[in-house]
Specification:
CATH class of one domain: Mainly Beta
GO molecular function, one term: 6-phosphogluconolactonase activity
Low-confidence stretches: 1-31
Strand content: over 45%
CATH topology of one domain: Methylamine Dehydrogenase, Chain H
CATH architecture of one domain: 7 Propeller
Protein name: 6-phosphogluconolactonase
Keywords: Carbohydrate metabolism, Glucose metabolism
Helix content: under 10%
GO biological process, one term: glucose metabolic process
Mean pLDDT: 92
Family: Belongs to the cycloisomerase 2 family.
Largest sheet: 5 strands, antiparallel
């Protein structure tokens, strides 16, 4: 396979500096979070949509802070950041920072934003920077294992950006890659949807929903340099729409959830080279389901035995058993998310619980994970306006 060229745009040496000097007003000050700090058992941040867009009727206020209590129930605490369409939130590995996209579309300008927040002792957020994301509709953030480099995937622009974190919360753009301009791009309608790092921090993967590819890059954590892998990409079937990607803890297999044809593609994973080889594609839907569906999130159980995928339309979490030797999947059932359009779910409570965020019905449902990997309802649903992402700090 011909090695592709990396399209890098040299950026001026302008660092996006901290706005730390201007103390941001605490949201919902009438609600004293400090007083409740000692009662917050497990803080959870919820990303949302705040305004009506073509694909969503956003009704939220921004980023919400919730408490995952000892009984598994989620309790709303407060709005901790008023950011437009924070549809993806992630926490730094040292748990000191929260990063959030501001998913703005092209009619609002030529860029969305990356919001950077310090996590205060009382779990409120202090904004330290808002950085143009380099294109519009940013939809995912990845932080390398050293916490020095932050990557943003821009869906509508087919662009991903790399920022280097400097002194005093400054951020400098050091790489900008337009997937549409890569020689191997076929459709020229790339949609960068997620960036995933390998466990050793030497490779990362960019799911391109528009061009039906997963681009593979080598990464040098000492200086942030990136270059195409010796295997620059792997393709899914045409029209699959690879959305999100996960690598198994055993470093032998990897999995892509494909939004447009409701499948999961299984790959063998070479941890030394970072290469991928297709092994299987399996549907996330029951045979008799013929209505609209678009998959969204994918996750592997902490024990490595089971994989889960969310169905928007069928409104379920599909459960699969992972063959320990082959890495292939077999269906073990489906569980309703007790709402509409589960864009995100997260596994918590030592692998005992799934929290499914239902975008269109404005709720998060708690599901029980049984020892055999199957799911059932915990009969616990909490209202949250337009929830689409969750970040667990513990």
């Amino acid at each position: 396979m011909k090695k592709i060229a990396l399209v890098l745009f040299s950026m001026s040496a302008i660092a996006f500096t901290s706005c730390k000097e201007e103390k941001k007003k605490t949201i919902n000050q009438e609600q004293s979070i400090t007083e409740t700090k000692n009662h917050i058992e497990n803080p959870v941040y919820v990303g949302t949509y705040t305004k009506k867009e073509g694909h969503v009727d956003g009704k939220a206020d921004g980023i919400y802070l919730m408490d995952k209590q000892s009984d598994g129930k989620l309790k709303m605490i407060a709005t901790v950041a008023e950011l437009t369409n924070p549809s993806w939130v992630t926490i730094s590995h040292d748990t000191k920072y929260l990063y959030a996209v501001s998913e703005l579309v092209d009619v609002e300008g030529n860029s969305g934003y990356l919001g950077v927040y310090e996590i205060n002792d009382d779990y409120t957020l202090h904004e330290v920077a808002q950085i143009p994301s380099g294109a519009y509709a940013p939809c995912h953030i990845a932080v390398d294992k050293t916490d020095k480099y932050v990557f943003v995937a821009n869906y509508a622009g087919g662009v991903f950006m790399e920022f280097k974190k400097g002194m005093n919360n400054s951020f400098k753009n050091i790489n900008k890659v337009n997937l549409n301009e890569l020689p191997e791009a076929v459709t020229k309608t790339s949609h960068a949807h997620e960036i995933t790092f390998s466990d050793d921090n030497k490779h990362f993967y960019v799911n391109d929903l528009g061009d039906d590819k997963i681009w593979i890059y080598d990464f040098d954590e000492s200086n942030g340099d990136i270059k195409p892998n010796q295997q620059p990409y792997v393709s899914t079937v045409k029209g699959a729409g690879p959305r999100h990607f996960v690598i198994a803890d055993n470093q032998k297999f990897a999995y892509s959830i494909n939004e447009l044809n409701s499948t999961v593609t299984v790959f063998s994973f070479d941890k030394n080279t970072g290469g991928l080889k297709k092994l299987q594609a399996i549907t996330t839907l029951p045979e008799d389901y013929k209505e609209f569906n678009a998959t969204a999130e994918i996750a592997i159980h902490p024990n490595g035995k089971y994989l889960y995928a969310s169905n928007r339309g069928h409104n379920s979490i599909a459960a699969f058993k992972i063959d320990a030797e082959k890495g292939t999947l077999s269906s073990i059932g489906y569980q309703s998310t007790e709402g509409d359009f589960p864009r995100y779910f997260g596994i918590a409570n030592q692998g005992k619980t799934i929290y499914a965020a239902n975008q269109n019905t404005g709720n998060i449902a708690e599901l029980v994970i049984h020892e055999d990997g199957t799911l059932s309802s915990a009969n616990n649903v909490v209202e949250v306006p337009t929830p689409v992402c969750m970040a667990f700090i513990k």
